[in-house]
Amino acid sequence: MSSIVAVSSLIFGKQIVVQTISSTSSSIISTIKTISDNYDNETKELFNRLDIKFKLEIITKYIESIEFNKHLDNKSIDLCVEYIKEILIMIENEVNTLEKEIEIYKNRWVKNLSSGSFKTQFTNIESHVNILEQRFNILIKILKN
Q1: Domain count, the chain
Q2: pTM summary value
Q3: Rounded Cα distance, 11 and 4, in Å
């Protein structure tokens, strides 16, 4: 009986991680759409170049399709999914920071900043998306074995 409870709690915990990944991805996609619709072409170009919406949707759907009950003993899968969740949260934080910075910029009387002022957020988002890709590739390799 206790092993059934333990297995159930493991699967339930993994489902919470999957739900977090899904909701974080949705939040990022929504925020980048808002930014793209309300700012200049540079943000659109960044998001298009990174192909972030596509990557987030594919990664989320792939992780949602993993049958965790078949991989209960594989700690590598658990770690990959956990680290994917963490980098998604970092991307979400950067995108939210970018959105706030753009709002501050748009509300200034004197707009002495250029879009180059957001270079830190652009660089961080690009770096985090690259890390996300690498982690996702590792997850796929582990699941193929």
Answers
A1: 1
A2: 0.84
A3: 11
